[in-house]
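Tokens as discussed.
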């Protein structure tokens, strides 16, 4: 327990590849600075999914860095991950947009001790010279998504978010990971219901799903 705590405070290895040294080694930093893979579609693609761009597929160092940031509160990764997210937003070619993070449940934020998606949105917005706005709030509790099929996820999430705030500039929904796309569909639906013009979504990483 104490070792785990010390590891959080004094990381001695790279969170992406476990190489000795700082929490983000030069090689893993380069991965985050690579050209975004750009537009991605999950398979199957859920109805109502906006255009989505990703920096990377959800694997290897990027997956480990995102988990370390989200679950272990490795906040030194916020800026480099946020910069990668900003590059991904730029790759969409959209202008004069604000970023809206997908909200986590209050329980998840409490357990993790921070709102990882908001942190990434703020870092990316700073890079882009725009704002990260909380235009979405949880409307009700949802079951844990892990282990659910695409159809079950869609049902679990329908009506889970609520749009807030006054409609204004075009919105890009941002999140750390896209799995089935169900969360981004619900985010886009809730924003549109509030009158927000959703132009696209951007994620740091997208799960690679194959057609069976
Ligand atoms: Zn590394």
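Sequence:
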């Amino acid at each position: 327990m104490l070792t785990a705590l010390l590891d959080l405070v004094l990381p001695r290895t790279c969170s992406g590849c476990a190489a000795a040294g700082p929490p983000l080694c030069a090689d893993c930093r380069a991965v985050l600075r690579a050209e975004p893979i750009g537009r991605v579609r999950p398979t199957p693609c859920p109805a109502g999914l906006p255009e989505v761009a990703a920096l990377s597929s959800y694997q290897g160092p990027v997956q480990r860095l995102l988990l370390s940031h989200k679950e272990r509160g490795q906040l030194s990764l916020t800026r480099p991950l946020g910069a990668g997210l900003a590059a991904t937003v730029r790759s969409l070619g959209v202008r004069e947009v604000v970023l809206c993070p997908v909200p986590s449940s209050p329980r998840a934020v409490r357990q993790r001790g921070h709102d990882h998606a908001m942190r990434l949105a703020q870092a990316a917005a700073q890079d882009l010279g725009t704002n990260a706005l909380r235009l979405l709030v949880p409307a009700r509790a949802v079951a844990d998504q892990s282990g659910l099929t695409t159809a079950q996820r869609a049902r679990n999430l329908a009506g889970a978010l609520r749009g807030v705030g006054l409609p204004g500039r075009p919105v890009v929904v941002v999140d750390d990971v896209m799995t089935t796309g169900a969360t981004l569909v619900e985010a886009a639906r809730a924003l549109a219901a509030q009158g927000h013009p959703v132009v696209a979504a951007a994620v740091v990483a997208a799960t690679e799903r194959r057609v069976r």
